[in-house]
Write a structure and sequence with these properties.
five-stranded mixed β-sheet, alpha/beta, about 20% strand, six-stranded mixed β-sheet, globular, 7 helices
Amino acid sequence: MSHLNLTEISDAMRTFVVGDIHGAYKPLKKCMKKAGFDLKNDRLICLGDVCDRGSNVKKAIDYLLKVKNLIYVLGNHDLWAIKWAESGIIPDIWMSQGGAETVSSFPNGLSDTHLKLLKTAHSYFIDNNKLFVHGGILSDRPIEDQDEKVFLWDRSLVAKAMHKKKKKKNSSITEFEEVYVGHTPTQNFGSDTPINSCEVWLMDTGAGWKKRLSLMNVDTKEVFQSKIK
């Protein structure tokens, strides 16, 4: 997997970030419609985990493939799907975490097109000192010295940010201006909307648990949501 670091984008391009989709195809379409998202001219940054738990993983990926300016960041569930596609092995832990829905969505296995989206995903994405990553990072060392396991699984950054929120402290905890993460549902902290603490934004609002999917304009911070039905 790769990472991406950009510093310039078109002034006319709006940038949106979406939390873990988990096969929530219809909610994704509703959020995009509410935002007036332009599939050709706007940019969408996905924080990973389009796979698993929801019943429409294939349709969700098909929809993402329509977005011309798509930045896809790898999630841990996506990595499970890649390993299944490449080996045919279905580990029990994956099935217990929603993998069955992905397998059902692709009865003939992942096509080359769907697999390419996941295999070319970025470990993280940086734009104008804003970091987008699925799980998190270790805030006490350079991001270049960290590995995929941290980016996909680590929750220490979220824990640190939420501790500061509880203490009503808002000082920065990373070198970045803003950090957007998925992976940790906001419902863990009693919220069904994105949570901001320090420079960290938690964007997973529980679509994988049939709660809400959230899409946010990175510049204006306007949030567009849809409930799972």
